[in-house]
Amino acid sequence: MSNDTIANLMTSIRNADMVKKKTIRVAATFITENITRILLREGFIEDVREHREGKKSLLVLTSKSRERKEKRYITASKRISKPGLRIYSTYREIPKVFGGMGIVILSTSQGIMTDREARQKKIGGELFCILW
C-alpha cells in the first residue's frame, strides 16, 4: 500500500480513462478533496461527490468522455514532487504546461491552487502534479 495519495489519484484517473470507465472511486483526504475541486473547477472532470462505506470516506469522480468532444479532459498527468523528493518553486519558476493549456497544481501557504492563481497572487510552493 502506498502513502502517496496524489499519485494514487492520478493513477486512478489515468487507468479509468484507458478503459473508458465513467466513475472513479478514490480515498477522501484533505489533499485529494482539494485537487478534485480544482479539477472540477478547471473542467477536467464532470462531478465529484462524497460517499461513505462504514468508517471509510470515498470520493466518487465522474470523468468526461472523449467521445462527446468535451472541451477539456485529462490526456496525461505527471507527478512532480514525491514523498522522497519534494520539489519547490517560486512563482516566477512555476512551469507553464503547453503554453497555458495544461495546469500545474501546487501547495502554497494559502492552500492548494493552480499555477495561474499562484502567479496572480505571487506566491510559490510545492509542485504536486502537471495535468494536460
UniProtKB/TrEMBL annotation:
One of its GO terms (molecular function) is rRNA binding. The keyword Zinc does not apply. Its main location: plastid. InterPro entries: Ribosomal_uS8, Ribosomal_uS8_CS, Ribosomal_uS8_sf. It is found in: Plastid, Chloroplast. The keyword Chloroplast applies. GO terms for cellular component: chloroplast; ribonucleoprotein complex; ribosome. Gene3D superfamilies: 3.30.1370.30, 3.30.1490.10. One of its GO terms (biological process) is translation. Keywords: Chloroplast, Plastid, Ribonucleoprotein, Ribosomal protein, RNA-binding, rRNA-binding. One of the primary rRNA binding proteins, it binds directly to 16S rRNA central domain where it helps coordinate assembly of the platform of the 30S subunit. Belongs to the universal ribosomal protein uS8 family. Part of the 30S ribosomal subunit. This is Small ribosomal subunit protein uS8c. It comes from Cephalotaxus sinensis. The lineage of its organism: Eukaryota, Viridiplantae, Streptophyta, Embryophyta, Tracheophyta.
